[in-house]
Amino acid sequence: MVEYKIKDLSLADRGKLAIEWAERQMPVLRLIRESLLRRKPLSGIKIAACMHVTKETAVLMLALRDGGAEIALSASNPLSTQDHVAAYLVEEGIHVYAWRGMTEREYFEAIASAASIGPDITMDDGGDLTVMLHKVALGERSGLDYEIGSSILSPEMAKKIRGGTEETTTGVIRLKALQRQGKLLYPVIAVNDSLTKFMFDNRFGTGQSSIDGILRATNILLAGKNVVVAGYGWVGRGIAWRARGMGARVIVVEADPIRALEAYYEGFYVTDMSSAAELGDVFITATGNTDVIRNEHFLRMKDGALLANAGHFNVEISVRDLEKMSTSVRNINEYVKEYTLPNGKRLYLLAEGRLVNLAAAEGHPSEVMDLSFGNQALAVKLLVERGALLDRKVYRLPKSIDKKIALLKLKSLGVKIEKLTEEQKKYLESWSA
């Protein structure tokens, strides 16, 4: 019997079509799924996953199920679940605890429900599942996640876990903090740190899908607008380049001097947020940090400025400050909320300050998630086979897997690459000219 909590099981037929469409664009994961189905390397393995419940994630979950795993899936964002996808996954035997529009309490209850499967492997996107398990195991009595997790989960549960995976930069930051403090309880593979993940998913995926979310929410013309991008990591640079490609004048705000210099030499205007606040028509945060745009910046902005976030958590734009200082608030549409400031200016917050690409659009294109989730599937297989041999550390996937994913993708695209001769290989391995 499949235990679940979703919005509407009758949406499953629509979900089936969406997942079939996504899988058609994901040839690498399709090949991995076929291999998992033949060999069943995950037989008897229980997986608890906290990820965006999208059609692309569904393709990954079905591949792992075909490999023999029992899976419990919760959402990694209250607004990112595609309800029709959740319904189809339940019909396919996966425990799903996710629906669009969850409250904060419902969100953490869903994570705890997924974790109650008693996982051998965890899969995370942002670290909320991993952190809940660690708080319960370590008795760190803080936050709603601990309150809910400790009422459902056993402190002993983490001892059974062979290993975990982490999909995004924010989650990796949290994991490395646990490792530094000597509190990480099992090995975790930072899938985000694979070249075939962050160079493509973060840059091309978030770059395109964040712009897509903003346009779906507002239908503005981006050409001619001053677009302020906060953060020039792989996500920020993807957004900056795509905004410029659509005719926007892009301003980059960056705290790291090397990244700031890179943005400058790539032709962007670089300044601090106080200066950018007066210039921007559209603001997009992509830093992974908190209070990037706050009280003093809101007061300097133009009337009508749009505020969007592409970072994992809704902390980059200080919604708290915005709520506190506004004289009136109203909803313009499902994704746009208007805040009127004491100076009479109006600012427009998109998607409650949450991930705009998933809250107001459909997330990354399937083609780019093919790379990310190919890495995820192979990371799970590696943990099942070798997790017991690994220390309690944050690991990167072996470079051989990165190359395998890239070669499979190139083959699916019909792209030929050069092959080195034996003489060339020998030359590259020699220290003598």
UniProtKB/TrEMBL annotation:
Under the heading Gene3D superfamilies, the entry gives: Adenosylhomocysteinase-like, NAD(P)-binding Rossmann-like Domain
Report the GO terms under cellular component: cytosol
What region holds the S-adenosyl-L-homocysteine hydrolase NAD binding domain?
202-363
Q: Which residues form a coiled coil?
A: none
Pathway named in the protein's UniProt entry: Amino-acid biosynthesis; L-homocysteine biosynthesis; L-homocysteine from S-adenosyl-L-homocysteine: step 1/1
Q: Where does substrate bind?
A: 54, 125, 167, 197, 201
SMART domains cross-referenced by the UniProt entry: AdoHcyase, AdoHcyase_NAD
Enumerate the InterPro entries for this protein.
Adenosylhomocyst_ase-like_sf, Adenosylhomocysteinase-like, Ado_hCys_hydrolase_NAD-bd, NAD(P)-bd_dom_sf, S-Ado-L-homoCys_hydrolase_CS
Q: Which positions does UniProt annotate for NAD(+) binding? A: 168-170, 202, 231-238, 254, 289, 310-312, 357, 364
Pfam families in the record, alphabetically? AdoHcyase, AdoHcyase_NAD
> Which cofactors go with this protein?
NAD(+)
Q: Which reaction does it catalyse?
A: S-adenosyl-L-homocysteine + H2O = L-homocysteine + adenosine
Give the co-factor note: Binds 1 NAD(+) per subunit.
Q: Name one GO molecular function term.
A: adenosylhomocysteinase activity
Q: What does this protein do?
A: May play a key role in the regulation of the intracellular concentration of adenosylhomocysteine.
Q: Which family does it belong to?
A: Belongs to the adenosylhomocysteinase family.
Identification of the protein by name: Adenosylhomocysteinase
Name its species: Infirmifilum lucidum
